[in-house]
Amino acid sequence: MASLLQAVTLRNISTSLRASAAGPSAVAGDHAGGYKLWKRLSFFVALPSVGLCMLNTYLEHQKEHGHPRPEFKKYDHLRIRTKRFPWGEGQKSFFHNPHVNALPDGYEH
Fold this sequence. Notes:
The chain is an all-alpha fold. The protein has helices at 2-21, 34-65.
């Protein structure tokens, strides 16, 4: 009697384990539907979002493009040069923009 009960219990446990392993899983199973979701998200969400960010940046740049640069005020705590930059004349930073960035004595003309 005990061996019959043990056999039935083991059969039920093994059947339930096989049934649960056949369900949806991140490790095993059919992967056919996942790429469609990510492909649609890429085309219908990600690419339009990048396009809207590019448009926003372009419009903000156009809006600020017409404004004159602010008047130069020589503050003691700004543009301190304790030693020269290793390129060029030594006063301009590596990413110097003459329209936006001022030198210690003022804007370039």
